[in-house]
Amino acid sequence: MSAMRYTYLGPEGTFTEAALRTLPEAATRELVPMVSVPAALDAVRNGQAAAAFVPIENSVEGGVTATLDELASGEQLMIYREVLLPITFALLVRPGTELSDIKTVTGHPVAQPQVRNWLRGHLPDALWESAASNADGARLVQEGRFDAAFAGEFAAARYGLKPLVSEIHDAENAETRFVLVGRPARPSAPTGADKTSVVVWLGDDHPGALLELLQEFAVRGVNLMLIQSRPTGAGIGNYCFAADAEGHITDRRVGEALMGLKRICPKVRFLGSYPRAGVSPADTAALRPGTSDAEFISAADWLARIQDGRV
Amino acid sequence: MSAMRYTYLGPEGTFTEAALRTLPEAATRELVPMVSVPAALDAVRNGQAAAAFVPIENSVEGGVTATLDELASGEQLMIYREVLLPITFALLVRPGTELSDIKTVTGHPVAQPQVRNWLRGHLPDALWESAASNADGARLVQEGRFDAAFAGEFAAARYGLKPLVSEIHDAENAETRFVLVGRPARPSAPTGADKTSVVVWLGDDHPGALLELLQEFAVRGVNLMLIQSRPTGAGIGNYCFAADAEGHITDRRVGEALMGLKRICPKVRFLGSYPRAGVSPADTAALRPGTSDAEFISAADWLARIQDGRV
Amino acid sequence: MSAMRYTYLGPEGTFTEAALRTLPEAATRELVPMVSVPAALDAVRNGQAAAAFVPIENSVEGGVTATLDELASGEQLMIYREVLLPITFALLVRPGTELSDIKTVTGHPVAQPQVRNWLRGHLPDALWESAASNADGARLVQEGRFDAAFAGEFAAARYGLKPLVSEIHDAENAETRFVLVGRPARPSAPTGADKTSVVVWLGDDHPGALLELLQEFAVRGVNLMLIQSRPTGAGIGNYCFAADAEGHITDRRVGEALMGLKRICPKVRFLGSYPRAGVSPADTAALRPGTSDAEFISAADWLARIQDGRV
Amino acid sequence: MSAMRYTYLGPEGTFTEAALRTLPEAATRELVPMVSVPAALDAVRNGQAAAAFVPIENSVEGGVTATLDELASGEQLMIYREVLLPITFALLVRPGTELSDIKTVTGHPVAQPQVRNWLRGHLPDALWESAASNADGARLVQEGRFDAAFAGEFAAARYGLKPLVSEIHDAENAETRFVLVGRPARPSAPTGADKTSVVVWLGDDHPGALLELLQEFAVRGVNLMLIQSRPTGAGIGNYCFAADAEGHITDRRVGEALMGLKRICPKVRFLGSYPRAGVSPADTAALRPGTSDAEFISAADWLARIQDGRV
């Protein structure tokens, strides 16, 4: 039954699956790997799945453009949840392989910059060839096509391999952000540590349009955590911007900022309000004075009074 | 009956009375001159008059500080109307006086800078002494204390004088703005060419507070026509600001800007929304895209929809 | 000899003279009272005096418009020094007069709002009539025209009066700022707690011009301590702005901000850089990061290097 | 000799080579294909080549992250030139192959979204498998591994293929921007239609830092043509920004804006000032008043005069 089915960017054994399994409800859902981000999302759009789980941002490689572009175009979807997963690699080999035996290594192209230094130090002569995914690389090692694959340690068992080295990561703090995406719905209730994602198209390319966009947020005291340009497909120099703002769409300051964007931009797409992964309400930045819901409500009362001649 | 009584800054025969009489309803009101702006306004505050008519801004001398300060403090009042009056002076003398006879001239101190060049050219040796008002100057000429007075030409008859020279004004475009002030009430309906006046106190003197104040207006596309600092009385360096904004408090962009001020400033006093004198709706500047009421309403509908999960 | 002569806004015995005498060099100058601010400044312009000492800002009444307007127009002058003087009044009477004898009081119109509450409490029935100056009021009491005058206590001896009550001031912190004005010269060296005064005319009245003016200061981290609109004389709605900025014109951030103003405004008049009265360098606000002279110089070096192909 | 050698992102037969050959000097250089962007740039860094030619931005896929990240890190390089190339694909097949024979197609992953719609319409059942480059896809067709490859038409001859269909491109205006990158040097002289590229790191992640960055440009009237966030590698939420600004580093407004960035940002990397491809000086936007070199120079003269006491 589709309401119990979550698709995800496959194959099995990747970091995406590992991240998905950190969600409590994953235990009671049918988890279906798909060959691509568009395929995972299309399953949601056409009703075959309740939600899709895909990577959206990588601390080393940046935004996952396939996901950003899919969310920005086509039938509208909404982000329900986010998951942050630290990314460290294990070097998986067939049982019996020693480091000195390794002549060829593989892994997803995104893995390469994250293990490059390690390779230079430990396997300077090994040849790298990219695989379609980290899990696929593991499979190719199982089949004997490569001597070793970089993948999540959790992938070893599935492919009959063993981790020769663990915790490999050139960059400290390497992590990937994943999102659970479904059909548009009423956003879940605010938790006090929320994030709101939008895609905003700028008007006829007038200089200063991005500044105006940022000021709509700034004047209401809404902090941006991410702003990322994406081409609109209308030629070099035409961009839309994916932005993540602190706060929930039911927060007055966020709602007013979004209405401001809606008025000045030709197109705004709301991608969801959802809890920030790994952040509790106690960890969020203090609101700028004058931007709490209570202050918005009090100001609205004042306006109603003076419009009515009562002061 | 106080409901039919308008006070004004007297005495009779000044520009203030002349400006007041341009209001259609002045013909059916009891017009009572008062000795000072505070006296004229206090009559409204204590219920002895329905409204007071006082000067608020002079194109040569600047804001009329007595009026600004009275409106900013004490029991709250509201501007109902404004009147713009071109200011040109006549040189009033007793019948028979020739220009060559004039050794002493008088007038309100505010008149002096507006006739200084004329005096230098035509009566370089005449001694100037200030009077309490232009009308008072005329009375002193009538009594023989001075040879000539600068006043509005309309004051001649009342004091048995004749205008020896008319249309005297050093500055082109000299004009004074007057306001009709009453007790707080529901503002009159918007006309399409309206003005909204407020007084805003800035927070604890942090640099940039004025910039933030202006941005609350700018981000909603609300133009300011006047911004004038006034001391708060709490020592050098402590100011409040009187601001006139284009638009009516029932315009969404104006209302949202005022709510923004209300949230970030320790105190905001609404002084009224009223028709702009001498400006028809056709003469007003085009709204910045995204700031019309229709666009505010459409954005609010959009927000309600996405908050409800409908896209 | 004119180089030793300072004019000041007279008459003798006013707060202006008292403030002037706080300057060390006043002891060795010929101090000449003048009948008006323009007269005091004109003596400098035509070479009869080395400098003029005039009030420029009053914490109760606001900017002294005669001074602001004189500095903004005519032949250019420059502020050399400022003096802050706390303002408290004494009630001066002829010897033998008791409080219960007082039926009439006088003083400068500016004094009235500063003693209004005191009068209401102690002499509710006394009639107030304004004098041309506080000192003039004292003289009129001496001559028997009034029973009492509000003036500086220092004026008592000069007019054979005695202070019946001292330290009268409705507003706490009432003070007046005076400036010593001379012909344009190289500003005195920075002290670390300086102020720079300018008058800025805005362009063709486009909305947002004031915001742009403030941003020229803000983007270079230059705090404004005062911004005051003055009519340009070209009709209601046409203003120039007198602004006091923290810092000295030889500070890079101040110089760059002024050049920015010079480029975007039709007219900028520099009124001087001078030490802030009553503020030591230790009391000044910390500079915003990136705005010190050292950082400006370092950035200029960097620019020169990269323009030259060295990185 | 390395001074005559240009590396480029290979292999031969790609759009990159085609774009490189539009440069006049390409005819007299030794053009060496490299396996990756880092390899092409490293050849410049280590002195084996005078310059490298690599893609930097794609109107469909966005910034070429390998190039952006290589330019932002490591030993500093500089952009000398840019080239814009319209991107349309040909479907290359072995001679004799008909459309109805095609069961498998290949091409670079970036090509896929640009031909997806065409495939859906003309070869709905063909299986897509990605190749390492468009040229590599052509080679694989030559070797018989696939029936058809999407590549530039210019690649057909090299691999013994023929273009079965030409001018395939889902998106109108698809184009790619390439840059010629060398070691830091004095930038070429301004042409009147120039572009300046920088990478800017924001400070300790304070909200509003991006807004401040944009204001440094805006207040000097410098338009931004591109702003693109890239992860710094220090974890999700840490970004630097690659920005392209209109103008040349020797333009005063650009220089002052860059110095402003240098002061407020922990790190700024200058990537070069170079002529805008396809834009003549006549096509550039008018400068905002107050931002021309003449106005900067005039304001600097004014500042020097008033600092010197001459007005």
Automatic annotation (TrEMBL), chains A, B, C, D:
Enzyme class: lyase
Residue ranges of domain ACT in the record: 198-273
Pfam families referenced in this protein's UniProt entry, alphabetically: ACT, PDT
Record flagged with keyword GTP-binding: no
Protein name, entry field: Prephenate dehydratase
Domain Prephenate dehydratase stretches: 5-183
Pathway membership: Amino-acid biosynthesis; L-phenylalanine biosynthesis; phenylpyruvate from prephenate: step 1/1
Site positions per UniProt: Essential for prephenate dehydratase activity: 176
EC number in record: 4.2.1.51
A GO CC annotation given for this chain: cytoplasm
Keywords per UniProt: Amino-acid biosynthesis, Aromatic amino acid biosynthesis, Lyase, Phenylalanine biosynthesis
One biological process term in Gene Ontology: L-phenylalanine biosynthetic process
Organism: Streptomyces paludis
Molecular function via GO: prephenate dehydratase activity
SUBUNIT field: Homodimer.
SUPFAM superfamilies reported for this sequence: ACT-like (SSF55021), Periplasmic binding protein-like II (SSF53850)
NCBIfam families: PRK11898.1
InterPro entries per UniProt: ACT-like_dom_sf (IPR045865), ACT_dom (IPR002912), Chor_mutase/pphenate_deHydtase (IPR008242), Preph_deHydtase (IPR001086), Preph_deHydtase_CS (IPR018528)
Catalytically driven reaction(s): prephenate + H(+) = 3-phenylpyruvate + CO2 + H2O
